[in-house]
Amino acid sequence: MNPLRLIKPSLIENRTRIIIGLISLIIVDFLQLIIPRIIKTAVDELTLYQASWEGLMRQAFMILIVGLCIGGFRYVWRRCLLGTSRRVEEALRNRLFGHLQHLSARFFDTAATGDLMAHATNDINQVRMATGMGMVALNDAIVLGAAAIGFMLYINVQLTLLVLIPAPLIVFGTRFFSRQMHKRYQTVQKSFSDLTEVVRERLAGIRVIKAYTWQAASADAVETASRRYVNENLALVRVTGAFMPMMVLLTNLSMVIVLGIGGRQTILQEITPGEFVAFISYLGLLTWPMMAMGWVTNLIQRGKASLQRLNTILTTQPHIEDRPNATAHLTPPCTLAFQGVSFHYRAGERATPASPVLQDIELTVEPGQTLGIVGPPGAGKTTLLNLIPRLYDPTAGRILLNGIDLRDIRLNCLRGLMSSVPQEPFLFAGTIRDNITLGRQVDQHRLDTVLAQAALTRTMAAFPRGLDTLVGEKGVVLSGGQKQRIALARALLVEAPLMLLDDPISQVDMATGRRLIDTLQGLQGVRTLLIATHRLSAIRQADRIVVLQHGRIVAAGNHDDLVRDGGYYAETAQMQAVTEALDAA
Asked: What confidence score (pLDDT) does residue 399 get?
């Protein structure tokens, strides 16, 4: 897709403002051309000793009126054109963020957060500059430049043609340097993304850096990325640094021609002193359009490079999306079935194991049942849960909900039927209340019930501001157990028929864990629970338990059956029973 199509809708939407702004800008350009004509008349009258006080005051008043009009119309074009560039910026940023929210988990397995942040900030700012000031500079280069040349031709054709001798050099120089600048801008934007990611990662991991006294190595990493960014900018400056002086040299060369040849023509009375002064004034006005050609090239190349980078993201299609005829309605209760499900991550997405993460999974979970999922680390427990809301799709087999393939159910409908507690609970930098309700209006009685179920009532009472306590970035002011219980409360608040719980009591003490287990047991028969855990006490009362090893189900049954049959589950249960007895003692 042509990158320019990204901003086309915003330009069409704001076309009235753009037209008003361009008309105002053109009026300003022509008003600026009137002032040298007034000055020409005044100089000629002074030179011929025909000037009068009244005449000079009249001419000064005309310049004042023209200046006021220039100021008024300049305000209008700045409000319209630069305001439009801000609206383009807003629309592009909203579109980028909206698109990122629709991309699949697979995309974020490989995309660097710093790179995405650079797209949402620096790249969009460059597009704004190209859209706003780029449009202004391009208009001035064309309209003001052409009009100034027209007035100069009116004064003296020969002198005008001589003054324009450097113009072809400007055109060819601009074409040559624009290609070089575009390449350099692409590299600069990439190095800015790398720098952003390095700084973001170090700030996010500042506690680990301090704990391991890794400050020197961390500072070196940032310094290296920063130096690379500076070096790429210096490489760009070597191009732009040669380009702008070239523009100044060529425009001043025109001034030399005017002073030499125009001055001689004035002495020989081929042109009047007033025309000579007006000609210099027009050349001064022409200097900006000639300079604007260089600046607008600079802005457009930056904007083009940024648009291409944004276009790469915005044309990326989500791997997980709705099929054309997917159903939008599914009524609980829900029966979940895995039929020959296998899955493996693609190369480069994660640390891909040699064998599939899941192989030939056959499972059926009836409405209201509780399924426990256990196994050693890396057995595929989390991946199994991630397949249910379609964060990923199976590479073989299918998952059914009420007999319908998950891929034939609309994502909003599917994910609206479930709530989840991830293995690593994530909290937003707001209040505890906001993190539980996610901005929804919730009855206080309902909220109190959920807090009690998640063993948070006494915890909230201990905070001076209770539910309105600010948790900081990623819940930094809270303990791991508190964050986990807040994530559980968030899931409990959503009255969904399916609950996916990934190690929901791994970070709490034994006493709190027992209270949470009681809560989960109270949901049996009410909701369908799938609980992946290392602490077997959480699933002891589950209707069915499956043991995963190397991505396969190696055992299944209830707690008593699995203990009696031996193997991984029995060994783990025995070790945890000893640990719990020692903790109780």
From this structure: 93
Strands 336-343 and 396-401: antiparallel
Give the per-residue pLDDT at 173: 72
Confidence of residue 71 (pLDDT cuts 50, 70, 90): very high
β-pairing, 544-549 with 528-532?
Answer: unpaired
Helix (H, G, I), strand (E, B) or coil at 502: strand
- 374 DSSP β-pair partners: 547
Which pLDDT score is estimated for 155? 80
For residue 75, give the 3-state DSSP assignment: helix
Contact between 84 and 21 (Cβ < 8 Å): yes
What whole-number distance in Å separates Cα of residue 344 and Cα of residue 395? 7
What digits encode the pLDDT tens for the residues 537-573?
A: 889 889 999 999 988 999 999 999 899 888 899 998 8
Cα distance between residue 38 and residue 32, in whole Å: 11
65's CB contacts (< 8 A; 6+ apart) are none
* CA 502 – CA 421 distance, rounded (Å): 6
User: Positive or negative CA dihedral for 276, 277, 280, 282?
Assistant: negative
| CA triple 26-31-36, angle to 5 deg | 130
CATH class, domain 336-584, is alpha beta
Q: In terms of C-beta density within 10 A (0-12 exposed, 13-18 middle, 19 or more buried), how is residue 378 classed?
A: middle
Report residue 421 CA to chain centroid gap. Answer: 26
- Could you list the beta-strand ranges (E) of 471-568: 498-502, 528-532, 544-549, 552-557
- The letter for the amino acid at 35 is I
Dump pLDDT digits (tens) for 353-411. Answer: 546 889 999 999 999 999 999 999 888 999 999 999 999 999 999 999 998 999 999 99
Query: CA 358 → CA 340, 377, 423, distances in Å?
Result: 10, 13, 18
Which CATH number applies to 3-314: 3.40.140.10, 3.30.1330.10, 1.20.1560.10, 3.30.470.30?
1.20.1560.10
